[in-house]
Amino acid sequence: MGLNPADGLVALVSLVASTVGAVCGVGGGILIKPVLDAVSSIDVATVNFLSGATVLSMTAYSVARSIHAGSGSMDLSRDTPLAVGAAFGGLAGKQLFSAVSGLFGNPDRAGAVQAAVLCAVTAGALAYTLAKDRVATRHVESRGACVAIGLALGTCSSFLGIGGGPINLVVLFYFFSMDTKRAAASSLYIILFSQTVSTAASLLTQDLSAVNPAVLALMAACGIAGGALGRRLNARVDARFVDRLFVALMVVIIFINVYNLAAFGAVRG
């Protein structure tokens, strides 16, 4: 299977989403997943895999570059327990998605569930972000608590097929009192672990015959390119700009998921 002109739109979405995701620390799947659901005819499970693989390529590049550069933007003693918990959550999220898909005669109906949950999660994250200056935050130190928090994040992101998302940043803001740029770096590290496990599980257990290898390679390349561009932009902007971009991103995501929720219900019922 080769590429066709419509795949140019897929590449553009992957590049833009990965760039914004690298700047904000939300992975990129938070945009790729709902946009492909809205504009493509690809089934939900395949979109989940393609989105996750793109996020994996972007986060692998971004995290490797951060560690190599020794930027000090991550605290591995705290971030690693979070990431380990997220890795186990990646497996749990895959199982949860399979269970939800099995509840419907048409597995694509699970897309409506994903759209509804993602819309609600994003709306909650937006409300918190707008009010965060008035919210007292915590300073969690326990490694066990970090693993449990990571487990919840990994489960949520894997189930939704987004790799990571606004909930990562909100949790890092609240439980660890991180500023925006510090949280973005930690979020990408957590996403890398959860998405590695989730993608490996898909390769081992999922029927991927519908995946076009050329499209997969194109999206992965765009993920790396977006990661490189996003790192450069993140280094040049301040935390206030990242906050504004994050808010704008969440508003766009909410509208896309409202559309998808209606579309899944009307067309794929």
Overview of this structure, please?
The protein is mainly alpha-helical. The protein has one domain (about 5-265). The protein contains ten helices and no strands. It has helices spanning about 5-25, 30-40, 45-70, 75-100, 110-130, 145-160, 165-175, 180-205, 215-235, 240-265. α3 packs across α8 (about 180-205), α4 (about 75-100) packs across α8 and α7 crosses α8. The radius of gyration is 17 Å and the shape is globular. The protein starts with 6 loop residues before the first helix and ends with a helix. About 50% of the residues are buried. The mean pLDDT is about 90.
Annotate the secondary structure layout.
Layout: H1 7-24, H2 29-39, H3 44-69, H4 76-101, H5 110-131, H6 143-160, H7 166-176, H8 180-205, H9 213-236, H10 239-267
Features:
single chain; 269 residues; mainly alpha; 10 helices; globular; TSUP/Inactive_protease-like; Probable membrane transporter protein; membrane
